[in-house]
Specification:
This protein is an alpha/beta fold. The chain contains 27 helices and eight strands. It folds into four domains: about 100 residues; about 130 residues, 3-Layer(aba) Sandwich (Rossmann fold); about 110 residues, Alpha Horseshoe (Serine Threonine Protein Phosphatase 5, Tetratricopeptide repeat); about 100 residues. Helix content is about 55%, strand content about 10%. Helix 12 runs antiparallel to helix 13 and helix 23 packs antiparallel against helix 24.
Length: about 575
């Protein structure tokens, strides 16, 4: 601590205690141990000893045979620690006089005095930020909507590679699609300093692309351009727009993520795949996978198409109607191929992390992939969301899940799935009022978003508020009169209401259906439990383990199975999927 801006040892010790007592660290024992050990060693003059091996053994309990080359626990947790400290100093510690940080690639903390000064105006503290509104399809054929949407997404991706620029996530900006709105209002709602808007007209192989950059504070245009180009020059136009915006900001672009292709037919198939993937229906997921597969046939080296295929297959598996043993290996292969081709596609890392979690039950491997996605693109909201839902919630790491889900919402505030995911974090902790608040936020954005309705219904059922529960579940398509395709939602309702006769009818129907298509054994186990058939429920859960069923990983927090928790067989099940007492 020899630098002029280094605080006294007493001030450093005091700051360490304050950080450890904060809500960001109080319920995260692993990161707290990491922080405490490294700061203590540093203050004791032992900074040179802070190597990966020592931390793995002393902090994370690895044996003396620990090999950092094959076990990435320290690197993974270092990424999480940097993220957690950044979140602390953005919130609770914003006014702290002493800062603790870890330079990338180092486990030696840097402790220095901070000079927050007077609280500046909100507008002055915001980093450069931009919202790319959906480009308007000016073509005569409405079918070309996939192309205008795709161009918007590609520009969002390109701008994400501009150093120092925060780009509002796709889900939030697409809420404004087809809706007239004042740019200044949009900037305020999305916390964006600039707005990029434009249109695209496609006629055969010719394009007319217009784009204009508007200052969201005053509504004045700062840059505009019209491009009349052949389709083959589209990628150059995308990069030129991103470069022009970077020049306006007097900043620089990072390297390309390697998403493109020279095959225009493959590119169009890829855009169609993304178009259907974003519709979030089972039918569209299947269509999406088909378009990505076609893009790969046309250009096997298109990394983005492999990443898209991994996305589509993964969400299909999560529906519980496709045998995970048939799909999940394909998800893994597609994600790994995308990374081999593109190097740093965060989408592929997220898909790989999802497979590691809900199929392999490799929790450390899953966390490594999610954090790698965040390291590649710190603004990728989906990475934080799935890290929370697929990796942290199943392990019961609720404080970390809340932090990750909140970060996802900061990046993509108008996303119904992300708001619902944050509500889910509170739901599994029994904090129902906070959960309902975020389910309501999701429904304010999209009144038809079924998951938010469903979770509200479950909470109302648990409170014996049956009229409200039935109304919410009906909107979710989980009661007669709605969409009866998702048997999981329906059986959950029957179980909590206690309609045994109806549950037995549902069980017979599902058993018959399972002879023709895959039905998640977890669903069947839940129905057996409603009927008081504990032995049959365990048999079904054992089948789920054998099949590596996608829904099994939430067993630890799934309230449907509370009656089984004192049974030793339940603990053995959790141990089989890596969620035993050690977590």
């Amino acid at each position: 601590m020899e630098n002029e801006d280094s605080p006294s040892p007493q001030a450093a010790w005091s700051q360490l205690g304050k950080v450890l007592a904060s809500k960001h660290f109080a319920r995260s024992p692993r990161l707290s141990r990491f922080l405490k050990f490294t700061v203590e060693q540093f203050l004791a003059g032992q900074a040179d000893s802070l190597k990966e091996y020592l931390i793995g053994v002393e902090v994370f309990g690895r044996p003396e045979s620990f090999d950092p080359r094959t076990d990435a626990i320290v690197r993974v947790q270092a990424v999480a620690l940097r993220s957690r400290l950044a979140a602390y100093y953005e919130n609770e510690g914003a006014r702290d006089p002493v800062g603790i940080e870890y330079p990338k690639g180092s486990y030696v903390p840097v402790i220095r005095e901070r000079t927050p000064g007077p609280q500046p105006a909100a507008a002055e503290t915001q980093p450069d930020s931009i919202a790319v509104l959906p480009f308007v399809n000016m073509s005569s054929d409405p079918e070309n909507e996939y192309f205008s949407d795709g161009l918007t997404e590609e520009l969002i991706s390109a701008l994400s590679n501009v150093h120092g620029l925060r780009v509002v996530a796709r889900t939030s900006v697409f809420r404004y699609k087809g809706k007239p709105a004042d740019v200044r209002q949009i900037g305020a709602e999305l916390n964006a300093r600039m707005v990029l808007e434009g249109s695209v007209r496609k006629a055969g192989e010719r394009l007319r692309v217009t784009a204009q950059l508007v200052n969201a504070r005053d509504g004045y245009e700062t840059w505009s351009r019209t491009y009349r180009v052949d389709m083959k020059d589209l990628f150059a136009v995308q990069q030129e727009i991103a470069g022009a915006i970077a020049g306006t900001l007097e900043t620089r672009e990072r390297g390309s993520a390697g998403r493109g292709t020279d095959n225009m037919e493959a590119y169009h198939s890829y855009l169609r795949g993304r178009f259907h993937l974003n519709k979030w229906t089972e039918e569209d997921f299947r269509k999406s996978a088909g378009f990505f597969e076609n893009a790969i046939r046309l250009d096997p080296g298109m990394s983005a198409a492999h990443a898209g295929l991994a996305d589509a297959l993964f969400v299909l598996a999560c529906y519980g109607k496709v045998d995970p043993r048939e799909v999940m290996p394909r998800v893994r292969a597609a994600a790994q191929r995308a990374l081999e081709l593109g190097g740093s596609l965060p989408e592929a890392c997220v898909s790989l992390g999802a497979v590691r979690a809900i199929y392999d039950w490799d929790w450390e491997g899953a966390e490594r992939e999610f954090l790698r996605a965040i390291e590649f693109d710190p603004g990728f909201a989906t990475a934080y969301q799935w890290y929370a839902v697929l990796c942290l919630i199943p392990q019961g790491r609720f404080a970390e899940a809340e932090s990750a889900a909140r970060r996802a919402r900061e990046l993509d505030p108008l996303s119904p799935p992300i708001n619902t995911s944050l509500g889910l974090v509170y739901f599994v902790q029994g904090r129902h009022d906070e959960a309902i608040a975020y389910f309501d936020k999701a429904l304010e954005i999209d009144s038809h978003f079924y998951l938010a309705h469903w979770w509200k219904g479950i909470i109302y059922l648990s409170r014996s508020m049956l009229p409200r529960a039935i109304a919410a579940l009906r909107k979710a398509g989980a009661v007669p009169g709605g969409d009866f395709r998702d048997f999981a939602r329906f059986t959950y309702r029957e179980g909590l209401i206690g309609k045994r006769d109806k549950a037995r009818q549902v069980l017979a129907m599902l058993q018959d259906l399972s002879r023709r298509q895959y039905v998640s054994p977890v669903i069947l186990a839940a129905v057996h439990l409603v009927l008081g058939e504990h032995g049959a429920a365990f048999e079904r859960l054992d089948e789920a383990c054998q099949q590596h069923d996608s829904w099994l990983v939430w067993l630890r927090v799934d309230r449907r199975f509370d009656l089984l928790r004192t049974d030793p067989r339940f603990g053995a099940l959790l141990a089989r999927i890596g969620l035993g007492e050690r977590h």
